[in-house]
Design a protein that fits this description.
The protein is of the alpha+beta class and 238 residues long. The protein has three domains: 1-41; 99-130, no CATH class; 140-234. The longest helix is centred in the middle third of the chain and has 36 residues, at 140-175. The strands form four sheets. Strands 1-2 form a two-stranded antiparallel sheet. A two-stranded antiparallel ribbon has the order 3-4. It is rod-shaped. It has three helices and eight strands, in the order ββββαβαββαβ. The two termini are 64 Å apart.
């Protein structure tokens, strides 16, 4: 009957029983796949083979049969700080956490029904994390310069309305004794219907045509994009 002794895998520190007939040979660990030579137990040059002793043999003879000493397992190997990740050197540990953890930052979620992590902003439904960025707070000068074009546009629109009121009264005098006036009067008539009413109408249409894009610009600048563009400090905080 062959004697067995225990050896440990140097990588995984997992113990296995090996018969003494494998001394000097190499065996492969089933966990990590590494091959290591089998050495005899400490304190003896080689593991001696023992013969089976019949039950009726004397007690003194049975006492001569000594089992090989079992070596102590080596201490677990601690990975170096800059050592590459090896999944065989890490184990799962059961914790008492009752709430799920974020798959991005591993922090606990707010509740069992929470969909967005409050630590990193990861959305567990959409499987994405919004952009996180640090920006400079805009000052009063930056905000004023950003709104200044809209303010000037409003002043231009007011000036156009005031100008039209003056134009309404002055157009009749400008056309008097001009080459637009026909000599058939009185009352005065005009060539090709170029009367003050026609100039007032077309002038009003021109102002309305210019007002449309100006009003859209003022609305967007004052009510939608009323803050200047963001200036990033750095691209991402995480």
């Amino acid at each position: 009957m062959a004697t067995t002794f225990v050896i440990a895998c140097p990588e995984r520190s997992e113990q296995v029983k090996v018969p003494d007939e494998h001394i000097g040979k190499k065996i492969r660990c089933k966990g990590c796949g590494e091959s290591d030579p089998v050495q005899a137990a400490s304190g003896s040059a080689s593991a001696p083979k023992t013969q089976a002793v019949p039950p009726g043999a004397p007690a003194k003879r049975r006492a001569t049969q000594a089992a090989a000493p079992v070596p102590a397992p080596p201490p677990p190997k601690m990975p170096a700080p800059d050592e590459e990740y090896d999944p065989n050197k890490y184990t799962l540990t059961e914790t008492d956490d009752k709430l799920p953890r974020c798959p991005f930052c591993a922090h606990q979620m707010e509740s069992m029904e929470a969909k967005i992590c409050l630590h990193c902003g990861y959305d567990t439904v959409k499987r994405q994390r919004p952009e996180v960025k640090a920006i400079y707070a805009p000052g009063f000068g930056e905000i004023f310069l950003w709104l200044l074009p809209a303010i000037l546009t409003i002043l231009v629109m007011i000036g156009m309305v005031v100008w039209y009121l003056f134009f309404w009264d002055l157009i009749a005098g400008w056309l008097e004794d001009s080459w637009f006036e026909d000599e058939k009067g009185p009352p005065p008539t005009y060539i090709g219907a170029a009367s003050p009413s026609m100039f007032r109408l077309y002038h009003a249409l021109l102002i309305v045509f210019l007002f449309v894009p100006m009003i859209r610009f003022v609305y967007k600048r004052l009510f939608i994009n009323y803050m200047p563009p963001e200036r990033k400090i750095k691209e991402d905080l995480f």
